[in-house]
Amino acid sequence: MELGIVTDSLAHLPFEEMLDTVAGLGITSVEFPTGGWSSAPHIDLAAILSDAAARDRFTGAIADRGLRISALNINGNQLHPVIGRQIDELVHRTVDAAQLLGVPTVVLMSGLPGGAAGDVTPNWVTTSWPPETQAILDYQWNEVAIPYWRDLAAYGEARGVRFAVEMHGSQLVYNTATLLRLREAAGEAVGANLDPSHPMWMGADPCAMTGALAGAIHHVHAKDARINERITAVNGLLDTQGVERAADRAWNYVTLGLGRPGGRQFWGRLLSDLRAAGYDGVLSIEHEDVLLDAVEGVAATVALLREVMPVAPASWKPQDI
């Protein structure tokens, strides 16, 4: 496996300082958000697409530090009933940029449509009742998401780009079952971006997910979440408070290893399970711990991953039986 980073983890640093910091920490790959919910502080998508000299300067600065680009990331709601077309344009432009840069993976979310034609806000259905939830889901999947994703998968395949879909709350794809449903409908160009922090707060086990997603994991984010049991015992896991109220929230994103008791053991098990499921690629650190300095938090994450991350191929071979 290989250490990587989502560059927004160090969004406060200018491009070259960010690269120097990343290389100094021993990270070897970078994942650049290109827009949507990110301000894209480290990449000018328009310049990448239109200016070969700018593209060469960008890739040269990365290569000069012994780094490579593992993925581009365009997280936004391309199925939004009002602004979806504008985000979809960014998605397609990001695929085009990935092709030009020789980057094989685009990370994004599934998107979330409205509940019916004419709606102006997305609608996340999380229960099977009342009965109208089933009509909403039928519309969202069969009339909006599946046609969209079939077209997008074909667009990516024609350009040598695959999609790593992040299973996230307030998205149509939020767990293993919905990811596999989208993959079955759109094809193998669509796979998972496994970010353990999201299933953690929704009550799923990322280690168990790896087996169910074997062969379908295209990318991994290294991010942790901590459940505040003092709060969840009273209010449950769902929480709409902003991250500025970290002390009062049911859960928070935290620096790797701080999420579960025995954090080091959990991450070692997860990485072993990932390798068993066929994933031996980049672990892209996504630091979103609001209580720590970003560089300090990333450094702590690197230190933990170095302790538990398999790098060399396994010594055992089938003929050893």
UniProtKB/TrEMBL annotation:
Q: Does the keyword Isomerase apply?
A: yes
**A GO MF label:** isomerase activity
The name on file for this protein is: Sugar phosphate isomerase/epimerase
Record-annotated Xylose isomerase-like TIM barrel domain positions? 20-307
Q: Which InterPro entries match?
A: IolE/XylAMocC-like (IPR050312), Xyl_isomerase-like_sf (IPR036237), Xyl_isomerase-like_TIM-brl (IPR013022)
Answer yes or no on keyword GTP-binding: no
Q: Where are the transmembrane segments?
A: none
Entry's Pfam families? AP_endonuc_2
Keywords tagged on the record = Isomerase
